[in-house]
Design brief:
The chain has 417 residues and is α+β, with helices and mostly antiparallel strands. The protein has one domain: Orthogonal Bundle (Cytochrome p450), CATH 1.10.630. It contains 15 helices and 12 strands. It has helices spanning 8-19, 31-35, 39-49, 70-77, 109-116, 122-141, 151-168, 175-186, 198-220, 228-234, 243-274, 276-284, 289-300, 331-334, 370-387, and strands at 52-55, 64-67, 83-84, 149-150, 305-310, 314-316, 319-321, 326-330, 390-393, 398-399, 408-410, 412-416. Strands 1-2-8-5-3 form a 5-stranded mixed beta sheet. A 3-stranded antiparallel beta sheet has the order 4-12-9. A hairpin with a 2-residue loop joins β6 and β7 (319-321). The radius of gyration is 21 Å and the shape is globular.
Length: 417
């Protein structure tokens, strides 16, 4: 493994530091731990010594419970009558995520979710596969061979932005604006890693709201079509949404259609380079793509956590969680839980139970677009294997600075025929 991909030394050093820390200091809301990928040392210690952990003093300025074991995460996620998604599902020190989309609501969630669910029906997914394959092939055929380029910008962002524009029936030539809006809300930085100023954030937010309000109103006057904006415009539970309520649902669809797939695509290339023997298996047997996809999602875990609020006093893991306490399900930790996934830090292309991961969540809030995300990953790798012998990572990947979005802002690669 190349030195810039080998994170074992940094992880071992982090383990030594974490081993001597008091439990009260195991604050996993520090985004620096995610950017340098040493957060796994903290999660390993918590899973072993305090799997339901109360963090009184935190980087985000509020106390919360860290839930780090697979079964405990599943319990929280599947008991919406005990754990609420309101007012937000994101652990943050600001109120930027406290806006009413169906992801972070209890009452009315099912009705709003049903409005857009037809976009991922089996019939529509079958229709979309050909579109995904055509666009993936076009992107790959336009890449330079033997020359360094940024995989995130040229492949991960390009493919997901094209598909997102298709799902929204958004002008394809303006699709980069969707990524910009997604990055503002999910990361606070643009695709080059430059932070948005408060003025830029406000201006872009208002521009996004204005654009989609006009688009929604236009689609409302037209017959219902099979795109997400038209569905919102005609759905009984969503057609009356205005202002931040409309914006919240639009941004949920944009972020959901972008970040999960985009960062899994980038993560898949990192995994193939870190675990080259697994890549050799795939090149020898292309049918392993199907088992590779859920393993990539498990190993990458593109959304690292989801937050809930206890509706009542409840006991979990021998700890008493009080009503209104914040409870954070660390999907990233659950997907590396040794009791569920043997050698969980390793990428194993034919892992038997990879599909049991918690990256898409459980219960009523399980990711609506999970099958579409998996299809894009599968089709892309089927097309990669037809064309290239290797996708070689040639420089240190730059990870996003976020405890929520676990992804990459840059990934230098060279293609080999």
């Amino acid at each position: 493994m190349k030195d810039f991909l080998d994170e074992n030394v940094a992880l071992e050093n982090a383990r030594k530091i974490v081993a001597d820390l008091p439990l009260a200091d195991l604050d996993v809301s520090n985004w620096d731990l995610f950017q340098d990928n040493t957060v796994h040392a903290y999660f390993e210690r918590l899973r072993r010594d305090d799997p339901v952990h109360y963090q009184e003093k935190s980087k985000v300025g509020k106390p919360f419970w860290s839930i780090t074991k697979f079964e405990d995460i599943k319990f929280v996620d599947t008991n919406s009558e005990i754990f609420s998604s309101e007012p937000t599902v994101v652990l943050t020190g600001s109120d930027s995520y406290d806006i009413p989309s169906f992801l972070n609501m209890d009452e009315g969630h099912d009705a709003q979710r049903r409005v857009v669910a037809p976009i991922v029906s089996p019939t529509n997914l079958a229709n979309l596969e050909g579109v995904i394959r055509e666009r993936a092939a076009s992107i790959l055929d336009g890449l330079p061979v033997g020359e360094e380029f940024d995989w995130v910008k040229r492949v991960s962002i390009d493919l997901t932005s094209q598909m997102l524009a298709t799902l929204l029936n958004f002008p394809l030539e303006n699709r980069r604006q969707l990524i910009r809006w997604s990055d503002i809300f999910s990361l606070g930085v643009d695709e080059n890693g430059k932070p948005f100023t408060a003025e830029e954030t406000k201006a872009e937010t208002m521009a996004c709201l204005e654009y989609f309000t006009k688009l929604r109103d236009q689609r409302a006057k037209e017959p219902l079509t099979h795109d997400l904006v038209s569905m919102l415009a005609h759905g009984e539970a969503t057609k009356g949404l205005q202002g931040v309520a409309l914006l919240a649902n639009v941004m949920l669809l944009i972020i959901g259609g972008n970040d999960t797939t985009r960062n899994s695509i980038s993560g898949s290339v990192v995994a193939m380079n870190m675990f080259s023997s697994e890549f050799d298996k795939l090149k020898a047997d292309h049918s392993l793509v199907k088992s590779m996809v859920p393993e990539i999602v498990r190993w990458q875990t593109p959304l690292a956590h989801m937050q809930r609020r206890a509706k009542v006093d409840v006991e979990l893991g021998g700890k008493k969680i009080a009503k209104d306490d914040l409870v954070v399900m660390w999907y990233l930790s659950g997907n590396r839980d040794e009791d569920k996934f043997e050698s969980g830090n390793d990428f194993i292309i034919d892992r038997a139970n990879a599909r049991n991961h918690v990256a898409f969540g459980y219960g009523i809030h399980r990711c609506l677009g999970n099958r579409l995300a998996e299809m894009q990953l599968r089709v892309l790798w089927e097309e990669i294997l037809k064309r290239f012998k290797d996708v070689e990572v040639v420089g240190k990947p730059e990870r996003t600075k976020s405890t929520f979005i676990r992804g990459y802002s840059s990934l230098p690669v060279i293609l080999h025929k």
